[in-house]
Specification:
It contains six helices and 23 strands. With 411 residues, the chain is of the alpha+beta class. The strands form four sheets. Strands 3, 4, 16, 17, 18, 19, 20, 21, 22 and 23 form a ten-stranded mixed β-sheet that branches. The protein is globular. The two termini are 40 Å apart.
């Protein structure tokens, strides 16, 4: 079911306008928000879930493919329209305009994978990207890479973002999700026109090594100096069984120890953050960055999902009635759907600086010419209601969870 909301703004056409000059139209009560990990102990346990047993869950995760293959059609009339004037939020490092040219396409550091436990209780991943926010702690991806539409649970379990992920390696740390934001119409009606999400994340966590101590007889400091921290029995008991079962805790006589993860800092400080563009004219060129995986309908495995890929093309109006997608945008792309869900659509991308303006996220792919090869990726159209969801998330602080274990922040 799609709700219709009337706006009184004047529709403007061309160009990216300076941030702060425009107040987009937005209906009250259109933002849905849910907690992912609401305290430090929960966040630590989630990080441990992914790094336990030499990152077995990370390495074994499979690409998420919910509603990936969708019949979509290119429409020449109708399609998405701005609900107010076009506007942008500048990327981190691009607040002051500078000229930048590059002959090569340099891949953005902001893009990575989000990992979570799906409705099938197995580990999966999507693509996501870091975006600008007050505390440099915000991630954007497809709505169904955060909200569990398969089992009708609120959100996915064990949700983390890992920029630059490769085969179990976490070069800039693991960023545990704190709070998820999406549009009410997606949360309640699964409306594809609102299939996007913004997630605040805690500071990243670094690990002292890829495994955990295996000495059950009480010598946690011998082989890993500084990797363990003594805590009270009360704090020790607050960690879930999965944390202890993974080997991230140790009892030595009457003393209790837990694994001391290191603070990796804020996401945006480490990898930057893309800007955001909304109410843009359909037909703009766009780069799509993601981790496509899986096969085309004809069985051809074009992508492995292990490395970041890109495509480039102009946007056009698309409709996908089967998923309530009446006002979508598409672009020609050979990306297969598995793994590419949540891929970042960047307009005005500056290759030299590796930044641009997020103007969409992949929510599905389609074979529009019937040759059994995917040729189109599609995204919700980013308008004033999108920026309304972003505005609800952009100023929320999350902070560090690598703090002394007896701190109130962990309780």
């Amino acid at each position: 079911m799609k709700r219709t909301i009337a706006f009184g703004g004047v529709v403007a056409t061309a160009g990216l306008l300076a941030a702060g000059l425009v107040t987009p139209a937005q209906a009250a009560g259109d933002v849905a928000s849910d907690a992912l990990a609401n305290n430090g102990i929960a966040a630590y346990a989630i990080a441990a879930y992914w790094k336990a047993n030499n990152a077995a869950n990370l390495i074994g995760a499979t690409p998420y493919n919910v509603e990936t293959k969708v019949v979509a059609k290119h429409v020449s009339k109708g399609g998405p329209t701005p609900d107010s004037k076009p506007g942008v939020v500048p990327a981190i490092g691009d607040e002051k305009k500078t000229a930048a040219k590059s002959k090569n396409v340099n891949l953005p550091k902001t893009t990575g994978k989000v990992f979570f436990t799906g409705a099938d209780k197995k580990p999966h991943w999507c693509t996501a990207t870091s975006v600008q926010s007050q505390y440099r702690n915000l991630v954007a991806t497809a709505g169904h890479c955060v909200y569990d539409t398969e089992s009708n649970a609120t959100t996915m379990d064990n949700w983390v973002f890992i920029p630059g992920y490769y085969e179990g390696k976490t070069p800039w740390g693991i960023y545990v999700g704190k709070q998820a934001f999406t549009h009410y119409d997606y949360d309640v009606y699964e409306d594809a026109d609102r299939n996007y999400a913004f997630v605040t994340v805690y500071n990243g966590l670094k690990f002292h090594h890829d495994g955990v101590i295996k000495d059950r007889w009480g010598k946690p400091f011998d082989s890993n100096p500084g990797a363990w921290k003594e805590v009270s029995k009360e704090t020790f008991d607050k960690f879930p069984h999965s944390f202890h079962a993974a080997g991230y805790s140790c009892r030595v006589g009457n003393k209790y120890y837990v694994w001391a993860f290191e603070d990796a800092g804020r996401l945006g400080d480490n990898v930057g953050g893309q800007g955001l563009a909304y109410n843009q004219k359909v037909g703009k060129p766009v780069f799509v960055f993601g981790y496509p995986s899986g096969a085309h309908p004809d069985g051809n495995h074009a992508f492995s999902g292990k490395t970041l890929k890109w495509t480039y093309g102009k946007t056009f109006a698309v409709q996908a009635p089967a998923i309530k997608g009446e006002e979508l945008v598409g672009t020609k792309s050979s990306f297969t759907g598995e793994g590419s869900l949540g891929s970042a659509w960047l307009v005005n991308y500056k290759s030299a600086k590796r930044i641009g303006y997020l103007n969409g996220v992949t929510i599905g792919v389609s074979d529009t010419d019937g040759n059994n090869r995917y040729d189109t990726s599609f995204s919700p159209y980013f308008d004033g209601e999108t920026i309304g969801v972003y505005n609800a998330a952009k100023n929320l602080w999350s902070g560090s969870i690598a703090v002394p274990f007896e701190s109130p922040a962990l309780h």
